[in-house]
Specification:
alpha/beta, ten-stranded mixed sheet, two-stranded antiparallel sheet, globular
Length: 745
């Protein structure tokens, strides 16, 4: 693989003479005003164009502009024809295509596959402004319009579909989106390193098909090139007792001869398929018969040869037909996700291989600072005039201080996209951005809505040993317990909070990202700073479940850790003389969850006075470990075999409705369903009119008939949904019943 190069060390492209654009152009008129006759790169996105570093297309566009390239934006084009895609003309280098900040299917459909009426990334919150599977549709239109212009797909939608993946919306395994989109190259993970290298090399005249040595990319090729050693994924983690597949390249002449001589086929080491896998790999050889080629797959490869070895995953056809092999493939992909030791992966799709290079090297602090200090205007493009974009309204006063997450929650795709190694900004860079917001962003009232990222409190946390970190294959640094090699010192984050809240003109610094409370309890000083200065009455945390069954499949800590954090939260709130509350989030219908687990959670919620206002069931997002559980019924956190642990999967609309109803036990529309379930489960003792009962015997007039306990339509417009990082499975406990507190948010 090509070694990582410092992101801003490249010689700028000649077009840097045009300077910095106030906004990246969306029309020909804007291009002409900038003096451009053409764009070097055009980014097509499913989101409205907001020039803010919380929007992926803005970051990529500004990073490429800083390299000297002329970058245009086509935002939310009409995909019914090619007209919108031709708006800026033909790019000199390539089209970059992304579905946007959210996967288009998650954006468009609820966890029960109902169409959403809104889209937070569209002006006015209007739904339906992007197609399903946007990356594929946009790529097809670009091909129709411009033929052989190189297409590079990226963003979270492409990243999480880089190999054969289970698609919840069609209930089947789909091919890599690279092939369905007919793209030339797929960029996965944070894409700055890859996209900058691609742009500079294409500008130098290299062909897109020759860019096969970039980390964090996937591409198609016909066969494994000479000099590479293939490793069968089954030798890394054998997926159970399967019949050996027929190998069309295997020389079976010795086996047939042995059989004719009275020896069972395969009983001789010299003729068995496993004997063809040598521990010290010789070069591929051919048999004496010129008509037969023997390809050898090896069990072990010397460390010195790892850079030229590739792991052969089960093919698309194999994982499509066998859920056990799908779970095995998922396990292998997650084992090979550490940039320090990951090997290339290859998966056959028909007569084409999809080749995945190892993940990109994480960005250094200097690079992160430079990215976030680019000249963003921090507002939507003037094209949208006064129309409000809900996602922007929510994040316009928030600041990203880090990327990545080492939590490894199986239902979340952040780790698969951004990686386990935390990428941090410097304190000075963050303070500089706060001051910029204070001084230049319209409507700022003195309140920063968030200093965070995928999590609120992983800033500057990392493995104590770079050597151990580069060799580690653990999916989580905090499950089943916090790794002893993990530095959990929150001092840098505490200092950042303290410095930020004392800046002139700053009234309040709120923390809107989710707090990882199992880490927070390791630093009571952090909890004190958080609770006494950065909570606006309510703090959201995510236990997700309380039963060991679902928690073990989520890789989340037990409820005991929640109680420890709650104790510290209440202690420091009392010391500050503040009445503040924790708002726990939960997931309904997650793999590993039984009806009894949800009943236990409902009783716990009632005992603790929580009433969930909005509930969402688990959504099997592409490539997540929990999705592999959902599809296979097996646990890929351990070795997967046909006889390995079976995972309870709450599939089907009826059981999903029931699990959601348990979380909304207080909704009278759910009471008939819950009474029926409680009697079936032998828990009729929870039906009654006392405080100790979960649901009453009586039924209010006019209730109990609405599907899924759905209430009547609201009389006012619904509040905008919070922008999501592909983590839409949470249950928001917005309505909280507390002594002395009014019902509602």
């Amino acid at each position: 693989m090509l070694p990582a190069r410092e992101l801003f060390s490249y010689r700028k492209y000649w077009a840097s003479r045009f300077g910095t654009a106030p906004f990246l152009p969306m029309t020909r008129e804007e291009m002409e005003a900038l003096g451009w006759d053409s764009c070097d790169i055009i980014v097509v996105t499913g989101d409205a164009y907001v020039d803010h570093p919380s929007f992926g297309m803005a970051i990529i566009g500004r990073v490429l502009e800083a390299q000297g390239f002329r970058v245009g934006i086509i935002a939310q084009p009409d995909w019914q024809s090619t007209a919108d895609f031709e708006r800026l003309g033909k790019p000199n280098l390539f089209f970059g295509i992304t579905g946007g900040n959210m996967d288009s299917m998650v954006n468009r459909y609820t966890s029960d596959r109902r169409i959403r009426s809104d889209d937070a990334y569209t002006p006015g919150g209007q739904g339906g402004k992007r197609p399903d599977r946007s990356v594929i549709v946009y790529s097809q239109r670009v091909r129709e319009a411009f033929g052989e212009v190189p297409i590079v797909v990226g963003g979270i939608e492409a990243s999480l579909r880089r190999i054969a993946h289970f698609d919840y919306w069609s209930e089947k395994v789909r091919r890599s989106v690279l092939l369905d989109a007919k793209a030339d190259l797929l960029v996965y993970g944070n894409g700055e390193r890859q996209i900058v290298e691609i742009a500079h090399r294409l500008a130098k005249g290299e062909k897109i098909e020759d860019l096969t040595d970039l980390r964090g990319t996937a591409f198609a090729r016909r066969a494994t090139p000479e000099g590479w050693t293939e490793i069968d994924s089954a030798t890394i983690d054998e997926p159970g007792k399967l019949n050996p597949p027929v190998d069309p390249y295997l020389d079976t002449t010795k086996q047939r001869a042995a059989s004719q001589n009275g020896n069972p086929a395969g009983s001789s080491d010299s003729g068995s398929p496993l004997a063809a896998r040598s521990s010290s790999p010789p070069p591929c050889s051919s048999t004496q018969s010129a008509a037969v080629k023997v390809v050898k797959l090896y069990r072990q490869v010397p460390t010195s040869d790892r850079g030229s070895s590739v792991i052969r995953m089960p093919s698309f056809d194999a994982v499509s037909n066998d859920p056990i092999l799908y779970a095995h493939a998922s396990r292998i992909l997650h084992l090979e996700s550490n940039p320090g030791n990951a090997r290339a992966l290859v998966q056959r799709h028909g007569n084409i291989d999809v080749w995945l290079n190892p993940p990109p090297i994480p960005l250094a602090m200097k690079e992160m600072d430079a990215i976030y200090e680019l000249p963003y205007r921090r507002v939507p493009h003037p094209f949208y005039e006064s129309a409000k974009i809900p996602a922007y309204e929510m994040i316009r006063f928030s600041i990203a201080i880090q990327r990545g997450c080492f939590g490894g929650c199986t239902f979340c795709s952040i780790t698969e996209h951004e990686g386990r190694i935390i990428q941090n900004r410097s304190e000075n860079s963050i303070i500089k951005e706060i001051e910029e917001i204070r001084d230049s962003v319209p409507g700022f009232t003195g309140v920063i809505s968030d200093l965070g990222g995928p999590t609120a409190n992983m800033y500057r946390l990392a493995c104590k040993s770079p050597k151990i970190e580069s060799a580690c294959r653990r999916p989580s640094c905090v499950y089943p317990g916090i790794c002893p090699n993990l530095n959990t010192d929150h001092t840098p984050l505490i200092k950042l909070y303290q410095r930020a809240r004392t800046l002139p003109g700053i009234k309040k610094i709120l923390i809107g990202s989710g707090v990882r409370y199992d880490l927070a309890v390791e630093s009571p000083e952090y909890v004190k700073e958080l609770v006494q200065h950065h909570v606006g009455g309510y703090l959201k945390i995510a236990p997700e479940a309380i039963g060991e069954g679902p928690l073990s499949k989520m890789m989340k800590p037990g409820v005991g850790t929640y109680y420890k954090f709650k104790e510290l939260f209440e202690k420091y709130s009392k010391e500050a003389g503040k009445e503040q509350y924790l708002i726990p989030y939960f997931i309904a219908a997650h793999p590993g969850t039984t009806d009894e687990d949800m009943l236990e959670l409902a009783v716990w919620l009632k005992k603790n006075g929580f009433r969930a206002d909005q509930v969402q069931a688990f959504l099997p997002s592409p490539m997540a470990t929990a999705t592999a559980m959902w599809h296979s019924g097996k646990n890929p956190l351990k070795k997967v075999t046909h006889s390995s642990e079976n995972v309870a999967i709450p599939k089907g609309l009826k059981v999903r409705r029931l699990h959601k109803a348990f979380l909304r036990y207080h909704d009278a529309n759910n009471w008939p369903m819950l009474r029926e379930a409680l009697r079936r489960m032998g828990r009729a003792d929870l039906i009654g009119n006392g405080k100790q009962h979960l649901v009453p015997i009586w039924q209010p007039a006019g209730t109990g008939d609405a599907p899924e306990g759905r209430r009547s339509a609201p009389t006012t417009a619904p509040a905008a949904r919070k922008p999501q990082k592909f983590r839409t499975q949470h249950t928001g406990l917005k309505g909280v019943k507390m002594p002395g507190a009014r019902k509602g948010r």
